[in-house]
Design goal:
Blueprint lengths: L17 H8 L3 H8 L9 H14 L5 H8 L4 E6 L8 H14 L3 E6 L4 H13 L5 E10 L11 E7 L7 E4 L1 H13 L6 E6 L4 H16 L9 E4 L3 H6 L1 H6 L4 E4 L2 H13 L9 E3 L5 H4 L8 E2 L3 H12 L9 E4 L3 E2 L16
Parallel strand pairs: 1-2, 1-3, 3-4, 4-5, 5-11, 6-7, 6-8, 8-9
Antiparallel strand pairs: 10-12
Helix pairs in contact: 1-2, 1-3, 5-13, 7-8
Pfam family, one: Peripla_BP_3
GO molecular function, one term: DNA-binding transcription factor activity
Keywords: DNA-binding, Repressor, Transcription, Transcription regulation
């Protein structure tokens, strides 16, 4: 027995127009517009208003958000413009934080990923300005100084994960110094005193701030800073692998790495030399990039960048719920201790 032919799918119904609402309510299109936009000064009787709203409900009419914004001069939209954040491991966290905070306060987040293209960025900001967004969160995928796009001056804005040296520009950024301090303290708390610091070759707030925090932690523990224990490496797995020999030549018991990718390369270099983490050398990374840190063996102790909080706090600053004055909000980078640290008594004995 053959099954009957399934019913043909219904064509999607076109959107209901304001003219159809006006016809159903027996009023003019202008009257419908005045009712929708809640113009209290318009001379429209309560019975007529109720009739218009009844027609809107019966027909399922949805007012055009952009047109309503233009009439009312406000919006429930907030823009988020980012360079390459939507294609990075941390992308979802900043967007998620901003989106959660937006929803909490009755706003919808409009997200534009520009991939660093200046023309795409200009078009994205222009589109958001046309929608009369409440404001724009402007974010970069890594912490750095920027030149503020001129068009942002046409609305309220906050920089997230970036900053500008210009008066009155608000920014929410990670506290790189506190992160560098927290990384060193994970090792100092286990009794390590000779700790290498593998930094990046790329000038950045992270390069400067994390080393500064590292030095502060050493000073607080009464340990003299030794510049010979600071080594530069490419900020990736190959860089961590390549610097392994130089690290071991310093006879250290522990290493703070600029990021988790460098730490992953250092793991490989130590393993190829027959050394164990943390039994021979304790290792701490930075970023808490979970696809790396939580899946290395042993799991990598690291410091988390507060990406979710960057998005959420940036949104709150934009809405005036948090007040940084005219300066920057620096968010702490919390340590995440896993299995890659151990007391130096179990570490590789110093050479010579």
């Amino acid at each position: 027995m053959t099954e009957p032919n399934p019913p043909a799918p219904r064509a999607r119904r076109r959107p209901v127009t304001m003219r159809e609402v006006a016809s159903a309510a027996g009023v003019s299109v202008a009257t419908v517009s005045l009712v929708i936009n809640d113009k209290k000064t318009a001379r429209i009787g309560e019975a007529t208003r109720q009739r218009v709203w009844a027609a809107i409900r019966d027909l399922g009419y949805r007012p055009n958000a952009m047109a309503k914004n233009l009439v009312q001069g406000d919006s429930r939209f907030i823009g988020l413009v980012a360079d390459a954040i939507a294609t990075t491991p941390f992308a979802g966290q900043i967007i998620h934080g901003a989106q959660d905070e937006a929803w909490k306060h009755g706003y919808v987040l409009l997200v534009a990923n520009t991939e660093g293209n200046d023309d795409a960025e200009a078009e994205a900001i222009a589109m958001m300005l046309e929608h009369k967004v409440r404001g724009i969160v402007y974010s970069t995928w890594y912490h750095r100084p920027i030149e503020v796009p001129g068009s942002l001056a046409e609305t309220d804005f906050v920089l997230v994960n970036c900053f500008a040296d210009a008066p009155g520009v608000r920014a929410v950024v990670p506290d790189e110094v506190s992160g560098g301090r927290a990384a060193a303290e994970l090792l100092l708390a286990r009794g390590h005193r000779r700790i290498a610091f593998v930094n990046t070759t790329t000038p950045s707030p992270a390069r400067e701030g994390r080393l500064r925090g590292h030095r502060e932690a050493l000073a607080a523990a009464g340990i003299a800073f030794d510049p010979a224990l600071v080594l530069d490496a490419r900020p990736d797995q190959a860089g961590g692998y390549a610097v392994t020999g130089d690290v071991l030549a310093r006879d250290v018991t522990a290493v703070c790495c600029h990021n988790d990718r460098v730490a992953m390369g250092l793991y490989d270099g130590l393993r190829d030399r027959g050394l164990r983490v943390p039994g021979d050398v304790a290792v701490v990374g930075f970023d808490n990039q979970e696809v790396i840190a939580a899946h290395l063996r042993p799991a990598l102790s690291t410091v988390a960048l507060p990406h979710y909080d960057l998005g959420a706090v940036g949104l709150r600053v934009l809405l005036g719920l948090d007040d940084p004055g005219d300066g920057r909000v620096a968010l702490a980078c919390p340590p995440v201790e896993r299995d890659s640290v151990a007391a130096p008594s179990a570490a590789r004995p110093a050479a010579g």
